[in-house]
Amino acid sequence: MAIVYLLLTIGALTTLYPFGMMLMTGFKGPTDQNDNKLIPAFWGDQKELLTKYIDDKYSGDASWMAHAAASNPEGADVETYEKWLSELPPTVWIAAFRMPGNHVTSRLNVRWQDWLKTKYPTVQEVNEAFNEINGAYQQVTPPPERLDQPGWKPKGDQKWRDWMEFKETLPVEYRVPLTHRRLFQEFLRVKTKNQLGDVPPVLVGEAKAFEEIVLPASASVDPLVADFEATGIPEVLKGKPSLESRFGGELPLAAQNEAFVSANAATIRHEFTWRNYRYVIDYILLNGRAVVNTVVFCLLVILVQLTVNPLAAYALSRFPMKATGKILLFLLATMAFPAEVAMIPSFLLLKDLNLLNTFAALVLPTAASGYMIFLLKGFFDSLPQEVFESGQIDGAPEWKMMLKIAFPLSRPVFGYMALLAFMGAYGAFIYAFLVAQNREMWTLMVFIYQLQLIAPKAVVMAAVTIAALPTLLVFLFAQRVIMRGIVLPGER
Questions:
Q1: How far is CA 40 from CA 23, 131, 170, 264, 389, in A?
Q2: Backbone angles phi, psi at 95, to 5 degrees
Q3: Which residues fall within 8 angstroms of residue 227, CB to CB, at 6 or more apart?
Q4: How far apart are CA 189 and CA 384, in angstroms?
Q5: Angle at 489 between CA 484 and CA 492, to 5 degrees
Q6: What is the C-alpha to C-alpha distance for residues 370 and 305, in angstroms, rounded to an integer?
Q7: Torsional sign, CA 215, 216, 219, 224
Q8: Which residue, of 129, 385, 421, 475, is most buried by count of CB atoms within 10 Å of its CB?
């Protein structure tokens, strides 16, 4: 028996690993969400934290990250550089920490939305000012900013003016300057179709990549330099000294990133750790109707199933017929077919009854359960008949014996049934989405599925973890009820 219990304990512990992976993946991001490590590396590895920070700052843009890594002059004074950077006008630097195309949130988005709340009391005022349709502040995104592209011009509308005002409030950490070196590298990349071998050797020098190429001091070195000065410089920098010349040398981008991460490691690590979970909670609150729908749906399912199934089981137990065995066999036969088989017929029936997109469509098809009726019928059969005979002698009607004798004695089984009903309703997704396609009737699981379509893996894992917490808490606090509901019918 000791060996058996040991094996059962080991098996139980192994079930914790998948949940732990799901939980910990929610703490990760695009750089480490697929590393299959139980503990996020950036929690203890400063180098990994710097990698995540740089990827986040430059929105996963490989060329920007490589350019920043190559901009690392010896003996750079980071404090002097940051003071100089803080005095630059917002038209010569791009805001960092933007949201990549395959993500759902970013530090810049959150900061922009928080700033808007201080200027516009309601999201309706934001919509009027920006001529947009946003349901909440969380949906307002920054305007496109392509200051590094020659010929690009902003709209100059109210949103852009507010954006320029907002940029003035950003700390130096968010400021990515438009260096001539970077512009020249991208100019060459476009001209040569990303082929370093097609760049004239006089421009390449000893560079092994585009990010290592340096802009010559004179346009006479190669015609491409003159072409760059004529067509490759944005309007905000054309005819003006380069930022490198204003600073007095190459900008220490790499040194600044390393110094900032070293000085603010705890804050950066905390932000990375909870970013996904904060977003999911914000997403749930933004779609608050989903929480209400889920609570109402679960309560109705529990109420209906604890009404219909006990009544049917009590009738079969107290008033047996010749066909009782066949009825039970029919009820058990419903368990032989997957629930998906009945979805389309149920959908068509509910459509004919004009019940789609209602709680009735969600609850009524689950009102009766063959398994629960069979379980309760067996439990009612096991109750002492002398108790019912005593009730009959005292003149108690059948409904009173059911409510005063049978049901109170069945509380453990009812608790077990309520848990099963809750789990079935809370985890329902396919059927809930099929019969309630109106967004106002979506449950929490449907919204999580929709989030899964647009969010990266780490955010999805955070959403699934949060969604699993109610079920986990119910199991932890109702273990006694579950065991009594399972064991008691067998003992009787």
A1: 11, 42, 29, 18, 65
A2: -70, 130
A3: 191
A4: 87
A5: 115
A6: 11
A7: negative
A8: 421
Closest CA to 435 of 344, 317, 303: 344
Query: What backbone phi and psi angles, to 5 degrees, belong to 442?
Result: -65, 145
287-454 is classed CATH 3.30.70.260: no
Could you identify the residue written with the tokens 């399972």?
A: 486
Q: E strands, 199-347, where?
A: none
- Report in angstroms the alpha-carbon separations of 21 from 17, 43, 46: 6, 15, 22
> Which residues, in sequence order, are CB contacts of 67 under 8 Å at separation 6+?
181, 182, 185, 211, 253
pLDDT tens digits, 217-274 = 887 888 898 999 888 899 888 888 899 999 988 999 999 999 999 999 999 999 999 9
Looking at the chain, which residues constitute the CATH 1.10.3720.10 domain(s)? 287-454
Which tokens sit at 177? 């300057």
| Residue 483, pLDDT score | 66
Q: Please, which residues have CB within 8 angstroms of residue 10's CB and are 6 or more apart in sequence?
A: none
Q: What is the pLDDT of residues 275-309, one digit of tens each?
A: 999 999 988 888 778 899 999 999 999 999 999 99
The reported pTM is: 0.84
Q: What is the DSSP string of 234-260?
A: -TTTTTS--HHHHHTS---HHHHHHHH
Joined tokens for residue 180: 């001539």
User: How distant is the alpha carbon of residue 197 from its chain centre?
Assistant: 43
Q: Which residues contact 244 (CB under 8 A, 6 or more apart)?
A: 179, 180, 181, 250, 251
Residue 103, pLDDT > 50, answer: yes
Is the CB of residue 97 less than 8 Å from the CB of residue 271? no
